[in-house]
Amino acid sequence: MITEHSDTHLTARPTNDDYRLGTEAYTDEQRTAVLAKLEGYLGGQRERLLGYQVNLSLDGHAALGRFLGYHINNIGDPFVDSNYSLHSRWLERAVLEHYARLWHASLPEDPASPGDEDAWGYVLSMGSTEGNLYAMWNARDYLDGNALVRDEVSGDASCRTTYLRAQHPDDNPNAYMPVAFFSQETHYSHIKAMRVLDIPTFYDLGGSLYPGECPIDVAGTGMQTYNGWPLGGVPTTGGDEGPGTVDVDALVALVDFFAAKGHPVLVNFNIGSVFKGAYDDVQGACERLRPVFERHGLVDRTVRFDPDDPTRVSIRNGYWIHVDGALGGAYAPYLEKARDSGLIETAPPVFDFRIPEVSSIVTSGHKYPGAPVPTGIYMSRAGSKLRPPSDPAVVSSPDSTFAGSRSGFASLAMWNHLAQFSEEQQVRQAAEVLRIAEYTAERLRRLSEQLRERGEFWAEDGIEVGHGDHALSVWFQQPRAEITQKYSLACVPLNLGGIRHDYSHVYVMPHVTQELIDELLEDLAQPGAFDRSADKDAQRPPLPHQR
Fold first, then answer.
1. Which helix (H) or strand (E) holds 139?
2. How many angstroms from the chain centroid is the CA of residue 30?
3. pLDDT tens-digit profile of 36-81?
4. 8 Å CB contact between 398 and 388
């Protein structure tokens, strides 16, 4: 039985009929009533939302209501003002300066003439999905020989909207055919980006062009394969039973295989992966990949980018390293500072622009530090910036971002949150969030042992608790639907030894208190909390003697 601590989660759910728009207007009383119903529902859910990467400590944003009377639109480049005067670019630039400093990059003193190693970026109107899509677009154009902003092209080529690869050298037909690599823990937006941008993944290309030649052995792992190549991404360390970090040995072997075939490579790393909150060792992986890039001529290669003038060339690398820090990109730097100040003992691996191979980074502002609307940050090196397909005069600012109209309110919300906290406060908050995550993992492990000792039905062998180093995610066996609904727990099936195991996870974000974790544990300790025998398609965990 679920413990009743208050009646807020029993608030009536809104229905479609409450908000259906017809030919007649709602009266003020009707509109007020149905909006109050929505507010009541959201308030009840917010109190116990534990399963998703979003910070709900948003009290400081109430003062922004006065800006809802303006259409604030940051259309165009963040560093070049548009003739559209209702914008918040001053705040956007301040937010970008903050993240450039956090990620050890520098914005150019003169945005009109940045250095190749200077940073450029913008505040996203969507979350990191937009940033990942833009990064993949930039990477594709960079790797397949399209002109960049820094490149001078002839008049005809500058007007083309069709997608063209550069003319490959006679001795390497694969020179401008990039291949994408990402781990099995990578966010689904990357698959979406590959489909939209027509970038082949290593398993697509390997299974079709090089069947049976995969350089890594995944036999016995339970992974699905395509002609011997692992579907869904590069294996993670220890598979689904591991912490969720990319298997660097497997990644290096796969990259080496395709680099030897002449392909440029696009590698994604995760800093705070979707389900397990894992931190890939970006620095260690790049140190392993560096000699591979050098050995196969992917460092400082000559690219003929202008299809109308083959004498025009630029020097660029044949690799692009993207860091998807949707959660950890804004959190891990403060753990590093917390370690340096003695608040914690260790910190996640370095992932930012201190690593020379890193080309782009993205993070979601609504996840960490928190915002009332989806938003985020995209940042890359200015020397690798893609050339927009057009330069619309009506905007009067370069169309250098993915979106056309961009939410000026998102920049306002990001700035407002960051302006309320000193660096010391942010460092202490990060250390406290990690403490509560570790507390959650320890409480769940103790509960797992108690359930095993009492032979709890559907938890006879415990509840398989997992928690990676520095992760805000703690995962465990999926409980009954009433509990997952009460706490908005995300549920994901994992493959352990060829058997499906259903998991839920808790994400300890800044709004999550130790008291809320204690309430969850109280519910999970109740008899029958993990009995899902009445749930459709539920998979019963193996009994101890079946392991």
1. helix 128-143
2. 40
3. 999 999 999 999 999 999 999 998 899 999 999 999 999 999 999 9
4. yes
**CB-neighbour burial class of residue 506 (10 A; exposed 0-12, middle 13-18, buried 19+):** buried
What is the token pair recorded at 95? 């937010």
pLDDT tens, residue by residue, 106-123:
888 888 788 888 999 999
Q: How many residues does the chain have?
A: 547
The distance of Cα 461 from the centroid of its chain, to the nearest Å, equals 33
pLDDT at position 116:
86
The H or E element that residue 323 is part of is strand 319-324
- pLDDT > 70 in the chain, percent: 95
Using alpha carbons only, give the angle 101, 354, 235 rounded to the nearest 5 degrees. 115
Amino acid at 402: F
Check residue 353 and report its DSSP letter: T
Structure tokens at 324: 């998807």
Query: Residues 382, 142: contact at Cβ < 8 Å?
Result: no
The first and second tokens of residue 194, run together, are 């590959």
Distance CA 352, CA 21 (A): 48
| Burial class of 269 by CB neighbour count within 10 A (0 to 12, 13 to 18, 19+) | buried
Could you tell me if 228 and 214 are in contact, meaning their C-beta atoms sit under 8 angstroms apart? yes
Q: Can you give the pTM of this predicted structure?
A: 0.94
User: Kind and range of the H or E element at 265?
Assistant: strand 265-270
In sequence order, which residues have a C-beta less than 8 Å from that of residue 133 and are 6 or more positions away?
189, 192, 193, 196, 197, 402
Mean pLDDT of the chain: 92
User: Looking at the DSSP assignment, which residues form a beta bridge with residue 319?
Assistant: 265
Measured from the Cβ of residue 45, the count of other Cβ atoms closer than 10 Å reads 18
* Rounded percentage of the chain residues whose pLDDT exceeds 90: 75
